[in-house]
Amino acid sequence: MDRVAKLASQNAVVIFSNSSCCMCHAIKRLFYEQGVSPAIHELDEDSRGKEMEWALMKLGCNPSVPAVFIGGKLIGSANTIMTLQLNGSLKKKLKEAGALWL
């Protein structure tokens, strides 16, 4: 849990992902297309990935990936991010966290 919190607080946008997950890929593309450069942590490529996956589930991420943190706060998984994108509030959160300049 401490490792997840530490990693999540190191960048304006942090995404915990699996390299073979199609929804993770879609969420990463969404951020890249908005001009955001998130820190990506591929859990399946990290020696402590399973431990972090359990920590994310304890935080309420189900499924555990993609898990998106903005400004150090857990925002949620793909459904939450897509909802925020569709209702227009994702961009506001990104600006508040300093991930977007315009």
TrEMBL record:
It is found in: Cytoplasm. Keywords: Cytoplasm, Redox-active center. Residues 13-75 form the Glutaredoxin domain. It comes from the Eukaryota. Its main location: cytoplasm. PROSITE patterns: GLUTAREDOXIN_2. It holds the Pfam family Glutaredoxin. GO terms for cellular component: cytoplasm. Belongs to the glutaredoxin family. CC-type subfamily. PANTHER family: GLUTAREDOXIN. This is Glutaredoxin. It comes from Dillenia turbinata.
